[in-house]
Amino acid sequence: MEKQEYRILIKHCFLMGKNSGQSLKWLQKCYPISAPSKTTVYRWFSEFKMGRTSTEDAPRSGRPKEATNAEIVQQVHQIVLSDRKVKLRELTEAVGISKERVGYILRDVLEMKKLLTQWVPRLLTIDQKQQPMVKLNQLRFELVAHPPYSPDLTPSDYYLFPKFKRWFRGKRFTSNEEVIAETEAYFEGLDVSYYRKGIEMLENRYTKCIALEGNYVEE
C-alpha cells in the first residue's frame, strides 16, 4: 500500500474514536509486514487532533525549510517524549529533514543521548537529582550507610539477575529487537509481590553482612 492509503486508514481510526495505540495494533494486525511505524501513527494522530483534515503532503514552498527552527525542534521533542525508543530514521521521515539535522537537534539543542535503546537527557537537572531523596523522605525510609558495592546488598545481584538468567537459558536470538522484546515480556509478567520479596530479603542479608563484618553472606 502507498503511504497515502495508510494515512487514510489512520484518519479513519481517528474519526472512529480509536486512540493512537489501538490504531497501531489494528494496522499491525492487518498489515504485519508493511504497517506504518509507531512514530508515523502517533504523528498523524497529533496532526488530526490539531485540526488537520488532509492526508496529503503539505505543499513545499520555494524556500528550503529551516531545519532547526522552533517548530521543528518542538516536533522532534514531542515525538521523542511519546516514544523514547524512536529511531533516527523514523524521526527523519516524521519531520522531513535529514538524519544529520535530526541528530544535531537531539544532541546539541535538546541535549539528549541514546542510552541503550532509549533517548534520555544528557545531564540530569538539579530537580531530577533530588527526586529520589524526596521520595525516600516521603516514604520515611531510614538511610543506612553500607559498603560502596556489595553483591550481597544489591537486589539486582542476589535476586533479580539469577532469575533473569534462568529465564533466558537455552534461548537463541537473531537480533537486538528480539532480545528487547523477550526482556520486556519477562518484566511484564511480574507482579508487585515479586519486587517486594526481593526488597524484603535485603533486611536479612544486611543483618548477616553486619554480623560477618562485611564478608560475603555466602561464606
TrEMBL record:
- Residue stretches spanning the membrane: none
The answer, when asked if Cytoplasm is one of the entry's keywords, is no
Q: Which keywords are on file for this protein?
A: Methyltransferase, Transferase
| InterPro entries associated with the record | RNaseH_sf, Transposase-MT_Hybrid
Q: Does the keyword Protease apply?
A: no
Do you know which Gene3D superfamilies this protein is assigned to? 1.10.10.1450, Ribonuclease H-like superfamily/Ribonuclease H
Q: At the top level of its lineage, which domain of life is listed? A: Eukaryota
Q: What is this protein called?
A: Histone-lysine N-methyltransferase SETMAR
